Amino acid sequence: MDLTEVFGETTTPPEATGLFKDSSGNLWISSIGHGLIAIEPSSGSIKHRLFATSYGDSAEVSVYTVTETAPGIILIGTSRGPYEYHLSEEKLTALGQPFFSGGSPTVTSLALGKNKTVWLGTLYGPVSGTPRLFGSISTLTTDLPSDAINTIEETQSGLWLGTENGLALIDRKNEVLQNYN
């Protein structure tokens, strides 16, 4: 596949920030400067293009991460906060933004947790909520290696956070933080 067919003729190459394969088999490519694109792998055809004004134009929103909360419902982490995209309706909706005092709404990572909880990694720490209730997010206040979360994942052992300055594990059951830096 020729990526100029996907990203257009540009002076800057796409900075890919994530790859995700949805339940329909589409490959989603998130990027800084070129938005979010879903490709049907066997044909190479573009199925969805979000946050880029048109073919080859620079995007006004940086897209850092993408996941699927349910079949056909895509959750997107961007420089303007979280968005939800319904494939069947081709409808994009901005969700409540996880603002922090003086902070940025940027969502750098996403993870699906227990009981339909969605974890957001932000520049100001981890945030939890549900896709429709981001207005009432509670933040975790811990002594993390860094507040800027690059990656986040919930496992049986707890909430893993990859930060700029190391790795951390939050055992939420026992309220214990272990830093690995």
Mind sketching the topology for me?
Layout: H1 3-7, E1 15-21, E2 27-32, E3 36-40, E4 45-50, E5 63-70, E6 73-78, E7 81-86, E8 91-94, E9 107-112, E10 118-122, E11 125-129, E12 138-139, E13 149-155, E14 158-163, E15 166-171, E16 176-180
Antiparallel strand pairs: 1-2, 2-3, 3-4, 5-6, 6-7, 7-8, 9-10, 10-11, 11-12, 13-14, 14-15, 15-16
Given helix and strand content, the structural type is: mainly beta
* Strand coverage percent: over 45%
Percent in helix: under 10%
Radius of gyration: 17 Å
Shape: globular
What is the number of helices? 1
Order of helices and strands: HEEEEEEEEEEEEEEEE
Tally the beta strands: 16
* Stretches with pLDDT under 50, minimum 5 residues: 134-139
Assembly type: single chain
Main sheet attributes: strand count, strand direction, barrel closure: 4 strands, antiparallel
Q: Mean pLDDT across all residues, rounded?
A: 79
Q: Main sheet: which strands, in order across?
A: 1-2-3-4
Q: N- to C-terminal separation?
A: 40 Å
